[in-house]
């Protein structure tokens, strides 16, 4: 039986501290990318399709739904 093969997307998220004054990639983003890429490379049935970075959401922000 052939093993399933997956194309995966990596989702990286900026922390609140990353948003203050950074022009280039933060250490947080680099660390997240390194960790995910390393994990996927160790899997024989995975390949990274794309890497997405979300800098628009603030962790811990609460919304009131009307």
Biggest sheet: strands, sense, closure? 2 strands, parallel
Number of helices: 1
Kindly, what is the distance between the CA atoms of the first and last residues, rounded to a whole number of angstroms? 51 Å
Q: What is the ordering of alpha helices and beta strands?
A: EHE
Principal-axes shape call: elongated
Structural summary, described in words:
The C terminus is likely disordered. This protein is an alpha+beta fold. 2% of the residues are buried. The chain is elongated. Helix 1 links the parallel strand 1 and strand 2. Strands 1-2 form a two-stranded parallel ribbon. It has one helix and two strands; from the N terminus they run βαβ.
Distinctive features:
2 strands, 1 helix, 66 residues, alpha+beta
Put the structure in a nutshell.
The chain is an alpha+beta fold and 66 residues long.
SSE diagram, text form:
Elements: E1 6-13, H1 27-42, E2 46-54
Parallel strand pairs: 1-2
């Amino acid at each position: 039986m052939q093993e399933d093969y997956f194309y995966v997307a990596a989702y990286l998220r900026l922390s609140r501290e990353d948003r203050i004054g950074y022009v280039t990639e933060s250490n947080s983003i680099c660390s997240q990318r390194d960790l995910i890429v390393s994990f996927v490379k160790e899997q024989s049935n995975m390949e990274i399709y794309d890497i997405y970075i979300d800098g628009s959401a603030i962790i811990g922000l609460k919304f009131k739904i009307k």
